[in-house]
Design brief:
This protein is of the alpha/beta class and 210 residues long. The protein has 10 helices and 5 strands. It is globular, with a radius of gyration of 18 Å.
């Protein structure tokens, strides 16, 4: 997609937010999570409220951004968003309640951590256990800039956490694979064993416990 096409499509990526505001919900928080598919580390969610005059069109579809561009946008977002907050659920809790419920819990924690109370939520294909108007959007980070911004902020926050975990548990490559199962991570599991931040209900970690 060319930059011109991105800019032409930009208003559409506030379609859900604008419809909610027209319906009487003035403060919209976009929510997304990262880390569901990892075998180590927490699942992190971000709730993000963008200003009405927000114009950074490139926040759509965060997964398509290069790391350099994503970091630049993350820094810009932190300066321009009205409010954002994170919710974290660690590996032990993920094992206890399952990853789907852990992701929902992380999202709830993120919303409750906001300084500004939202009147409605736009969420990437999930719902949150809160008495707020909610719109679930499939592929939300491609269709809503509020969700895409939350995705970028959540990704950056989780990467920082995993970089610290790499210092605490060297040899697993957490600073590179951020807890996703890579060849390096699989080899480290066999050589060094399971760390406290590994998800024991996730294969192949669970296989090592048999």
């Amino acid at each position: 997609m060319k930059i011109a096409d991105i800019r032409a499509d930009f208003p559409a990526r506030f379609q859900f937010e604008n419809e909610l505001k027209t319906a009487g919900f003035p403060i919209i928080a976009g929510i997304d999570e990262v880390g569901r598919g990892c075998v180590a580390g927490p699942v992190i969610a971000c709730a993000c409220i963008l200003p009405a005059d927000f114009s950074l069109s490139e926040t759509f579809d965060s997964k398509s951004l290069t790391k350099i561009r994503r970091l630049a946008i993350e820094a810009e977002l932190k300066k321009s968003v009205l409010d954002f907050a994170f919710g974290e659920v660690p590996a032990a809790e993920i094992d206890r309640i399952n990853i789907y419920q852990a992701a929902r819990l992380a999202m709830k924690k993120a919303v409750l951590a906001l300084h500004t109370e939202p009147s409605a939520l736009v969420i990437d294909a999930m719902s949150v256990d809160l008495p707020l108007k909610q719109v679930k959007i499939i592929h939300g980070d491609r269709l809503s800039n509020s969700i895409a911004a939350a995705s970028i902020l959540a990704k950056g926050h989780r990467d920082q956490i995993m970089a610290k975990m790499a210092e605490k548990y060297p040899g697993y490559g957490f600073e590179r694979n951020v807890g996703y199962l890579t060849k390096e991570g699989r080899k480290a599991l066999l050589e060094y064993g399971i760390t406290p931040i590994h998800r024991k209900t996730f294969a192949p970690v669970s296989n090592l416990l048999k």
